[in-house]
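Quick start: read one record
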Amino acid sequence: MKKLIFLFTVFILIFNINFISAAEDNLPIERRINTLQWVSYAPTNFNPEQGIFPSDESIRADMRVLRAAGFNGIITYASDGTLYRIPKIAKEEGFKSVIMGVWDVKNNVELQNAKNQAYYVSAYSIGNEGLYGRYSLEELNDAYDFLDVTGKPITTTEERNDYLIDNNVLNFGDFLLPNIHPYWDGVVSAGDGANHVKNQYMAIKALTNKSILIKETGYPTAGDARVSENLQKSFYAKLAKKKKVKFSYFEAFNQPWKDNLAVEPHWGLFKSDRTPKKVVSLFN
C-alpha cells in the first residue's frame, strides 16, 4: 500500500509539473513579454569565427548562473553547432520562455534545427540586423514560411530606426523585437540613455498594435573611457523604472571573440568566466 501511495504521489507531481508547463507554453507572446525578465544570450566558451561551440555542460552552467540572477525568459541568436540545444536545456533549468534565434535565414540546416526544437520554444527570431545585406526580404519571408508550420510566433530584429522608416520591417512578423542602443546613438549618460530608449520605444509603439520587446539595449563596460560598470548598472536601474518599456538585458556574458570594435567584447552582465559585474547586484 505504501508503495502504491508513493507511486501515486509521484504521478500527481509529474502531472502537475507537466500541466503547469503546458499552461505556460500556451500563454500568448504578449503575456510573456509583459511578465518575464528577459536576457539576450550568447554562450560562454563560444567563438563562431573559429567554429568553437559550447558543450551541453557549459550551456547548462550558463543557464544556472542566469536563473540564479532571476532571469526566466531568454533570447538566443543562432541554431547551428550545439546552439540548437539551448532551448531544451533552458527549459530543464527553469526558464519559462525561449525565443529561439536563427542567424542565417538561408541556412536550411539551421532552420531545420530550429523547427525541430519547437516543443521547447515560445517564439522564433529569424535574422538579426541583416535585411537588405546578409539576406533579402524574400529570403526572410521564406524562412518565416518554413517555421510558420510550428504555430509559434515569429519575428525578426533590426535597428530601432528601421522600424520608423521601413514598413517592411514594421509589418514583418507577429511581434516586434528591435535593438535600441543609446551608446550607438551617441548618448553616453545613464539617465539620458534610459530616456532615449523609452522615447524610441514609444515612437515605434505609436506605429503598430503589435507587442514590442527590445531585444538589445545596454552599455558596454570597457573599451571606451566614457563607459564603466557603474554606468551600465545605473542605466539599467533607471530603465527598469520605466514600466511601459519592455526590454531584454543585453547581453548575458562578455563575448571576447567580438573584437571588431574595442567595446564589443564588453556588453555582458557577467564576464566571460561567469563572474558578475556590478549590475548583477540589482537582481539580488
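The longest strand covers residues 97-102.
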